[in-house]
Write a structure and sequence with these properties.
There is one protein chain. The protein is an all-alpha fold. The protein has one domain. Helix content is 71%, strand content 0%. The protein has 10 helices and no strands. The longest helix has 27 residues. It starts with 8 loop residues before the first helix and ends with a helix. 10% of the residues are buried.
Length: 203
């Protein structure tokens, strides 16, 4: 069935549309929803994105075990720790200040939010500036701390794929538990009137 054509463009477009649909329905087109994650009041972002990572990892492993996908069919970029750290810090800072990441800014724009348009414009401007400044010196910095042993946990650390998946699933359970705890704490104690109103709403 996939990739639907030789270049895989149609499947990529389909997956992108579905991904955007899920993000919008999860409320990720709203910067208020997203900044609440950094305030530890609403863990929806972490829960949804981490769940997607775990589902994708398990799904790829199952497809490989069943022989429906070759082990080298998915491109895995080199593990450049300095580039990842710098990129993560910059994206995280922009996320916390603007309330959007690159993907959610597109969702917000198509939801009719003008602030998402401003954020997306800044994103494109920053991309062009980075591309213009990119040269041997910056490339050398970005290439620091490359993991030479391999590009996956299995290759680099000799951990079996099953063990990596088990760790991811355990981490996902921990994220849901911790997130729910922080969310309850942010809501504060429920008053008697609120409890009665909630019970009445459920009737």
């Amino acid at each position: 069935m996939f990739p639907l054509n030789d270049a895989g463009m149609l499947s990529g477009l389909l997956c992108g549309v579905l991904f955007g649909f899920v993000l919008e329905n999860a409320g990720f087109g709203s910067p208020t929803k997203l900044t609440a994650q950094f305030q530890l009041r609403d863990w929806s972002v972490f829960k949804v994105m981490f769940s997607a990572i775990v589902v994708a990892a398990v799904g790829l492993y199952v497809l490989k075990v069943l022989g429906w996908m070759q082990a080298d069919a998915v491109f895995v970029p080199s593990a450049l720790l300095m580039a990842s750290a710098m990129g993560g810090a910059l994206v995280g800072a922009g996320f916390a200040v603007g309330g959007y990441c690159p993907g959610t800014s597109v969702v917000g724009l198509f939801s009719g939010r003008l602030d998402a348009l401003a954020f997306l414009g800044g994103l494109l401007l920053g991309t062009f500036i980075f591309a213009g400044l990119y040269g041997p010196a910056l490339e050398a910095v970005m290439a620091m701390w490359e993991v030479q042993a391999g590009d996956t946990f299995t290759d680099a650390f000799g951990i079996s794929e099953v063990m990596v998946l088990a760790i991811l699933v355990a981490a996902l359970v921990a994220v849901f538990w911790a997130g729910s705890w922080f969310e309850r704490r942010a809501m504060g104690p429920v008053t008697a009137d609120e409890a009665v109103a909630g019970a009445g709403a459920g009737d």
